[in-house]
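Appendix B. One record, verbatim.
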Amino acid sequence: MGPATAEEVVLQYEDQVRLAWTSLRRHSAHARVYLSMEHHWNSQGHPDPLRGTVDAPIDRHPTHDYKWAVVTGGKPSVTHYDTLEAFPHASLLEVHLETGRTHQIRVHMAAIGTPIVGDKLYGPDREIFLRSAAGTLTDWDREQLVIDRHALHSARLVFRSPAADEPTCIESSLPGDLVEAFPQFAG
């Protein structure tokens, strides 16, 4: 057998990284911290309370199998949040995951009345999602979404490094599109 092709090396590397990450998640304490900009669709205008925990089971949506929902009998799911800054029409939250379900932050924030800015799937208007899926978003839709993607950013990952057996922290600044969106909420 000849030398491995570049594609084979990449695939082996990706497989090793996936296995290492899976092992790391199972066998070491880790923390995932996200920053999220939330719309105010609840009656208070801000998350209520401003700091809290959403402890609600998540599973497939009962009627729309392409998304997830808070459902009785779902998998245990816990999300902690803290309001960092409250604007008139949105809030900047720091979000910590205790569990890691698919779309957990998006589902939990929508469930408490503060869907993530730009979230077409879990946002307050299902028609925007349908038009987005069909590629027919209107100018009004784009104005409501504020940005072209959901305003959720992985800000910090902390894990115990298997190589050094000590905590490792990886941080990432807010991307420019989220920074540029802030003034739209401040006024």
